Amino acid sequence: MRRLGSRRSGVADGRALAVGAALVATLTAGPATAQSYQCRMPRAVVAPVVPRDGPVRRLPITGYTMALSWSPEFCHAPRTGARGRALQCSGRNGRFGLVVHGFWPESGRSWPQWCPTDIRPTGLEIARQLCLSPSAAMVARQWAKHGACMTRRPETYYKVVRILWNSYRLPDLDRLSRQDGLTVGDVRRAFAEPNGGWEPNMVGIRLSKSGWLEELQLCYDRRFRPEPCDRRRFGLPDNAPIRIWRGL
Fold first, then answer.
1. Contact by Cβ (8 Å): 169, 35
2. Which of 84, 133, 141, 162 is positioned for an S-S bond with 100, CB 3.0–4.6 A?
3. What are the φ/ψ torsions at residue 62 (nearest 5 degrees)?
4. Among residues of the chain, what percentage have pLDDT more than 90?
5. Per the structure, how many domains does the chain have?
6. Torsion over CA: 239, 170, 20, 9 (sign)
7. Spatial contact of 247 and 174, defined as CB atoms under 8 Å apart
8. How far apart, in whole angstroms, are the C-alpha atoms of residue 67 and residue 215?
9. Is residue 248 part of a domain?
10. 239 in any annotated domain
11. How confident is the model at residue 87 (pLDDT cuts 50, 70, 90)?
12. What was the pLDDT predicted at 23?
């Protein structure tokens, strides 16, 4: 959901992205996969064409957001576009908990987005992300709308997403959902406590209109260090009630 300044500044930020990813690489091991109960994805897909649906915004990058969606709520809530949800929600390709919605550059109160590029991800590059983000359309869109403002190649953008993802110790939200009097602060602490360097105020929470968990938004500075979320990303206060649709 975000952009950059000039062509030169875009390259510089792309290099900063690679450097930041290298710093967390030592914390990671093993293949990238969503918080899945199982995952069986195709090894190659047709790369979707992504039409631009908003303005180009070239802004300096001041930080980043990793958005992790809670798949059981996404699949449970009534929505249009069922065809595009098949990989994530049909059950034929697996059952998922937290999945990567996207990794976005920030720029103060706004964000870079739709930076012009002629480079598109290949079907193989998209397929490599599907156990992390179980939607080919979503994977392709995240590069076109956000990743192109951060790096010159889709491969680099997706690699950074995998590295960051593999550095997390994800909370058991199924178990947490059974807690009486559950609050937004409980969910923030459930993520922050097992993850070194993270504090609850660095974890944004997005709820549906009826109070169900939709997404965690993890806030980073431009050097890939966790930082307190601004008001836009932070969401409701810690004492707000929350409900979690169970994945099992």
1. no
2. 133
3. -115, -10
4. 72
5. 1
6. negative
7. yes
8. 7
9. no
10. no
11. confident
12. 47
Please tell me the predicted confidence (pLDDT) of residue 171. Answer: 95
Q: Which amino acid is at 240?
A: A
Side chain identity, residue 95: R
For the ranges 40-54, 73-87, 154-168, the lowest mean pLDDT is seen at 73-87
How far is Cα 113 from Cα 39, in angstroms, rounded to an integer?
A: 30
Amino acid at 149: C
Asked whether the beta carbons of 58 and 6 are under 8 A apart, the reply is yes
Q: Are strands 98-106 and 63-70 parallel, antiparallel or unpaired?
A: antiparallel
Q: pTM here?
A: 0.85
Tokens 């937290």 -> residue: 98
Residue 35's pLDDT band, with cuts at 50, 70 and 90, is: low
What is the SS3 string spanning 21-40?
A: HHHHHCCCCCCCCCCEEEEC
Q: Which of 33-37, 100-104, 169-173 is least confident? A: 33-37
* Nearest Cα residue to 157 out of 64, 71, 230, 48: 64
Say if CB 158 and CB 77 are below 8 A apart: no
Rounded to 10°, the helix 154-166/7-25 angle is: 30
Instruction: Copy the structure tokens of residue 96.
Output: 């998922």
The domain of 112 spans 7-234
Is 41 within 8 Å of 87 (Cβ atoms)?
yes
CATH of the domain at 167: 3.90.730.10
The answer to whether residue 76 sits within a structural domain is: yes
Per-residue confidence (pLDDT) for residue 138, from 0 to 100: 95
Average pLDDT for 183-208? 98
Rounded Cα gap, residues 50 and 126, in angstroms: 13
Place of tokens 């190649």: 153
